[in-house]
Amino acid sequence: MQKYLSLIVYGIVVVLFVAFGVYGCSGYPAQKELALKQAVEEKGYTDVTDDQMDELKDKVNLPTKVEEQITGNAVADWFIPLSYVLVGFAMIAAIVLPLIYTVTQDPKSLVKIAISLGVLVVVFFICYAFADATAVKTPDEEMSAEGAKYIGGVLIMTYVMIAVAFVGAIFGEVSRSFR
Length: 179
Hints:
Layout (H helix, E strand, L loop, with lengths): L1 H25 L1 H15 L7 H10 L4 H42 L4 H21 L5 E2 L4 E2 L1 H33 L2
Antiparallel strand pairs: 1-2
């Protein structure tokens, strides 16, 4: 079962890689066409027909840096969304697969998982209560008081979890040294 599951996961990753690769590479010709058109216009040719533009594009050579930038943009256009999808896929797999294993092998341990999640929810709401609810306005963005309070709650919870992990690590090392 585990062998087939890993093959399915690998297959999904390969399909995603190919799909996003085709998507990203499809943008390369349009970006190159736009760069050639801009290069022709920079040479002073503005009022030309489409046929003349095609002839002028054939005569214009793009600088190597521009070619590399277009290639980099085409690659980034598919690697960045692909990485988001793969991270999301990994997060879902990291949550779902252990739950499936737990349900099939040791259903009693689901109570411990539920208690842990409940503790995290309680900690979040405590941190949320301490968060500042001041609306934030910048020249580019505006955040409501509720959004600022939510983000503040998440940040405070992150700090609390880091502190708990740090204290737990120290406590574990000290208690281990006295054994």
